[in-house]
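Shipment paperwork, digital attachment
Item: protein structure file
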Amino acid sequence: RELSSCPATMEASKNSDVYGLIEGHCIQQADAPSAYTQSRLEGTDTWVGLPRDQWPDAWKGLTQPVCPLILALYGHPDSGGYWERHCERRLLSEGFVPISEWRSSYWHPRLKVSLIVYVDDFKMAGPIAGVKEGWDLIRKGVELGPIEEAGHYLGCDHKITKQTSPITGKQVNTIEYDMSDFLR
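Attachment content:
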């Protein structure tokens, strides 16, 4: 009974990028540190042995003690699925709505923001004030690291610049995807 996670697709991520290039919008990202261990392990009880140097003093003299695994731990075959369900429950409770065509992709109708979740990497795009409030909502139920402007995401550097449109002659936001480090 292996659970499997289903991270967002590259197409969903790029769709969000396009939305974030609109004037008055932004694209930001954050990481969820130790993401899996932010969720509880469910289902069949799992028991683990700890390395001897991690034993509490009360275990001294025991032969091979074990303890229940409570949090979803990296390496457990179902941890990704439990983290994904935990994360989605938190997002739904704050008004994010799943985009049915793209798993792990969300829309917040009041804030008008797009959110992409790729395992522990979050990327949000939309009106600047909406994005700021969106991060505040997510932080109510998910521990996040620092919020940053779009940069290195999924092995790709996102470089946002302004250029003159050859059609309108106006300054427009553009994005370049640089994967040279990944390819090296």
